[in-house]
Design brief:
With about 90 residues, this protein is an alpha+beta fold. It has a single domain, classed as Glutaredoxin, CATH 3.40.30. It is about 40% helix and about 20% strand. It is built from four helices and four strands; from the N terminus they run βαβαββαα. A four-stranded mixed beta sheet has the order 2-1-3-4, with helices on both faces. Helix 1 packs parallel to helix 3. The relative contact order is 0.24.
Length: about 90
């Protein structure tokens, strides 16, 4: 199973949507709330240069972008393999 990390904020609809997809896939993920831990936003921006909005999603330390990018990977049939789950 892949190591999945997602940087979020509680009032972000895209964050909730991304987490619902991950939950639907049945995968575990580490969630970092950038409002509770402000230093996490700086960490997120260093890991995904040029990206300062949430959610930012990392699979096995690789930045994949935000919610739209993750849904695009799912639509293209690539997300399950990245997550290490059966189709």
């Amino acid at each position: 199973m892949a190591n999945i990390e997602i940087y979020t904020s509680p009032w972000c609809g895209y964050c909730h949507r991304a987490k619902r997809l991950l939950d639907k896939k049945g995968v575990q993920y580490a969630e970092y709330d950038v409002t509770v831990e402000p230093a996490r936003r700086q960490e997120m921006m260093q890991r995904a240069p040029g990206n300062h909005t949430v959610p930012q999603i990392f699979i096995d330390d690789q930045p994949i972008g935000g919610c739209d990018e993750m849904f695009e990977l799912d639509f293209d049939g690539e997300l399950n393999a990245m997550l290490g789950v059966a189709a």
